[in-house]
Structure formats: C-alpha cells, structure tokens
C-alpha cells in the first residue's frame, strides 16, 4: 500500500528545489535542447524522472542529465565512489530521494572545432550518435528548425544540439534502460510527457509544490490514476521559452 501522500511528494520536490537538484530549465550553465518527464509506480512506491538534453560549455559536449526523484531509489552510488565513509554517508543523507545520472549520446569527434568546443568545425562532417554515424547538422539545418544562428559563418555547439533534438529526439534523450537506471525494477511506467508546464524555480512562488502541473502529477503517483493529469497551463518546456539558459 502506498504510504505517501501528495503533500509528501511535493515536499521532496521542493526540498530538491532548495538544494538546486530540481531541474531549472533556464540554468545559466546549460543551453536547453530537449526535455521529457516520466512517472513510475508500484503499489508501495513512486518515481518521477525528468530528462534534460542540452549543452554546457563546461562539459565540452552535449549531454542528457537524468533527474530521478523517488520514494526509494534503485542502484545507488556505492561507497567505493567516495573518498571516505563519511563522504558516502553525507551523500546519502543529503540526497535521500533524488539521484542524477548523465548520458552522453554524442561522441567526441572532428565535428567539433578543435580550437573551441563551443563551436562546430567547418566543412561537412559526420558525428556518432548512439553508435551510428549521422551527418553533423550545418547552419542551413538551424533555419529549417526555427533556430536563428548567433553567427552567420559558423555553427555553435548548442545550435547543433537543438537541431539534433528536433531530428533525432529519441536518440538524444535517455533510452528506456537509462531512464529506469534509478527506478526500482518492479515499478511500472504509467505516464510519459514530451511537453508540460514547468515552474520557473528561480522564483519562490514557482516551486514545484505550488505548480498545478506537479500537484496533478503527485496525485497521479499516489492514486495510479493518470486521469488526474489535466493540464490547464500551456506547455513551456521547449528551449525557446528559456532564453537565459546557457548564457552565464
């Protein structure tokens, strides 16, 4: 039997918001390209997973961060990943209901400008996406997908990520196994959203607990009834709604 109530789930999400582990779609360090949200449930437990694909200049290559929130997490980091027992115990204490994993769907290669990884190299190139060669996007592809290039002569890496999100969405976001990496095996996926109204968590009033979206999703998790998700607000998870992302 599910012992969690909607307020309990929302409290977990708000606490993660306070500790900056709840997704901020206008994260100043990440140019947003694509998102996805999934709900999982068993009779006793719940899990909420948000995937964020984008480009951080500090990372040097586009990646997908898989944010996991759950009553119980599966496959947690082991003590061997930490410098001491104390550090491991601090990790568990600070993240009792959340875990973050990174996926790298695109391999490094000559599609990157060797002088500056924020740029795409000139000339036609292939890149390896999920182990398969595909033509690297070019500036003309940006226009075809509503992306206005910042530079008329050379493509930015974040623009390449956004083109790939438009043309190869399933490949740049997490696979089923990657999405479920921290989800208990007995849980069933009950809902998947490609778009939703996400709170602007920079403002206190827009915390997940105050979000109609996440209030409804919490009710779905508690009851298992997906009909409780009845979005009234327009979705805003497309990257064009978060222009501040990546600009720091």
Describe the overall structure.
With 248 residues, the protein is of the alpha+beta class. 24% of the residues lie in helices and 20% in strands. Helix 1 packs across helix 7. It is globular.
Give me some keywords for this one.
globular; alpha+beta; single chain; 248 residues
Report the span from N to C terminus.
46 Å
Low-confidence stretches: none
| Average residue pLDDT | 95
* Arrangement of strands in the largest sheet: 4-3-2-1-7
From the spread of the alpha carbons, the general shape counts as globular
- How does the major sheet shape up? 5 strands, antiparallel
The structure class reads alpha+beta
Number of strands: 7
Helix proportion? 10-25%
H/E element order: HEEEHEEEHHHHEH
**Integer-rounded radius of gyration:** 19 Å
Q: What's the total helix number?
A: 7
Brief synopsis:
The protein is 24% helix and 20% strand. It has seven helices and seven strands, in the order H-E-E-E-H-E-E-E-H-H-H-H-E-H. The protein is globular, with a radius of gyration of 19 Å.
SSE order and pairing:
Layout: H1 6-18, E1 31-41, E2 46-55, E3 63-70, H2 85-94, E4 98-103, E5 126-129, E6 132-135, H3 139-144, H4 157-167, H5 169-172, H6 176-179, E7 188-193, H7 212-223
Antiparallel strand pairs: 1-2, 1-7, 2-3, 3-4, 5-6
Helix pairs in contact: 1-7
